[in-house]
Amino acid sequence: MKRSRLRMFKATSMTISVMGVLLIVATIIILAYMGFASISSFISSDASSSDANEQLASLKTEYASLEAEYNNVKIKVQATNNNQLKTAYTNAELELVKTNSAISDVESAISVGKSSDEVSERLEIAKTQLEKAKSSLASVRSQM
Fold first, then answer.
1. Do the beta carbons of residue 100 and residue 63 sit within 8 Å?
2. How much is the pTM?
């Protein structure tokens, strides 16, 4: 009787030890996976942020040159007495202001650390608005 209890104790003890080792190994694997996932997420978000910053710089450069063109056209429009042309220029200038606002939205999304999807969505909105401002300026120039 003593021997069977001793064997049963050994078997139970061995089973508990093996289960403990397996649980420790499983915990280490899970923690390693979570750490790897967070590091890779950090690296990919950093890379997309860098790309977004480059696109933002490009938008700002295009905006600055477009603003200079608007200022040149403004001088010519103010020299005329055409009220229709002045109204068209004012509407076009409103598109330029909307473009500046859209670029500021992109800049704030990047600085706050919004998701890359949100930043890319705002970048597309800013690009679209920049194109609208360009076409509005072309429209004013065609009326001159």
1. yes
2. 0.67
